[in-house]
Amino acid sequence: MAQIFRAGKSSKQRSKQVETVELQIDSLDHQGRGVCRHQGKVGFVDGALSSERVKARIHTQKSRVFEARTVKVLTPSEQRVTPFCEYYQQCGGCSLQHLDASAQLVHKQQAVSALFDKFAGTTELPWMSPLTGQARHYRRAARIACIYDKQNDQVKLGFRAAGSKKIIEINHCSVMVDAFAGGFDALRQALNSHPELRSVSHIQLCAADNGAFVLFRHIRAVSEQAKMHVAERLAAHNWQLIWDDGKTEPSYDRLPAYQSAGVTFEFKLSNFIQVNRDINELMLNQALDWLALTGQERLLDLFCGIGNFSLLLAKQANEVVAVEGVAESVAMARQNAHTNHIDTVSFHQFDLTQPLTEATWFHESLDVLVLDPSRTGAYEVLRQLPLTQFKQVLYVSCDPVTMARDAALLLEAGFVVDKIGLMNMFPHTGHIETMALFQRR
Predict the structure, then answer these.
(1) Strand 433-440 relative to strand 415-423: parallel, antiparallel, unpaired?
(2) Which active-site residues does the annotation give?
(3) Which of 83, 249, 398, 438 has the fewest beta carbons closer than 10 A?
(4) Does 60 score more than 50 pLDDT?
């Protein structure tokens, strides 16, 4: 095959990619990045706050925008604080520790309002008080990256760097719950106790109500002897250890579980759950309060997962039809309904990105709609549903852009925003979780 010569980038081009400039920050975007204008382009600057003047290194250039990272704050904002984590600006987990915690909520609410104005043409929103909990030690679940470093003959373990596959080795994480916050070094030593453990690609942590669970995902066989090495070294932590080779179903001595309002939710570590237990509890209670069900409603819960909303709503509604695309989640939701003796809910597997013409679960008597989609939102399904049959729509969002876009469809269909509020599920990050209740006019 002929080899085609492509000239490498000149030193001038390379230096332009890492150009360092002084920037005046005008505002923050919905991800918490500083927004500025420089030489006719809009810039998005990590680590910068509104009203600050910073020195930043540009790492991405496009025709109209550029992205940069703050290297020095020249004129700091009054809202700037010292990050509490020693790995901040290395680890990709948190991105807003430099912004005062209360100011984070103000910024996020302003960001949602601006997006509703942009996509839905709504300038006045009926904001409720945000749902807040602990600012640290709130995260009950996480995924830890692992890689064998041949040069040092050691397994490295930690979180990924921001926008990179590089592993930042850490010994302590201040946003993890106490069961795991200081356990990183113990995990690292355990993985380095036997050569076979070099094949562990990641570790999944989850602190459930009934114990702390640690799953080791490995890409090659691990002997019982090697597993014993790990168990002995981690015995003091009283973690339940689970091994997953990616081929067979992992074995659990007992399934992880959490409780809410008298309902027990069992799950596997492959199922999605909210990682902030306290905010999840507040979120469920707020959903019940806002909907104020009378027992007559027939409710459609889309993107239902393992039944986080469905099972509680089924205790107050006449009927709940719950739909989820992931088969394993549907199976767990049905098991949870059976375990809790809830028979007013039916769970269905259906890909909600597909046409609803084959949706045998849908019927015209459904009058309340609950949505808890992924970051891609619910546009496709909302576009197909006969929205006029619903009297209420409760939308739970983990992405304010897709929520604002989807809200435009609901407003066009004759709904108004009755209540809206932030849920501070991920303090010190750019993630924005929101709940909104739409009522038919």
Answers:
(1) antiparallel
(2) 398
(3) 249
(4) yes
